[in-house]
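input
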Amino acid sequence: MGEITEDGKNIMLSVHDGVGFNVAMMPSNGGELTTLVSSEFLDTHVECSLAGDQILFLTTRNGNSDMGIASMDGKDQKILTNSEGDEYSCQWTPDGKSIIFTREDSSADLMARDMASM
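output
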C-alpha cells in the first residue's frame, strides 16, 4: 500500500528488491521509482509527515518491528524504538508533533511518542 505525499506529487511505498522490503518514492503521475531507505530487512508501513519533511516507517533491523524515521530524501535515518515488543500501526498526529503507535509485547498498548523528545 502506498501513501501520497501532502503536496500530491509523489507516492511513498514499500517495495521488495529480492532481498528485503525498502522504502521508495515515485512521481504520482508515473516515472522512475527511487529507493530512499534500503536494508536487508523489512522496511514497511510508510507514513509521510504532514509537513512533508520526514518519512516514518516500520523496520525489523533490530530483530523485531521497530519505528524508524528519515528525511524525505532518505537521509538522516534513525530508529526511534528498540523495545522487546513489536511496534505496529504508526501514524503522525494531526499537528505533526507526535507519533501514535501500537506496541505489542505481553499485551497490545496504544502509545504516543513526542517528537520533541527525539
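quick obs: The chain has one domain: 3-117.
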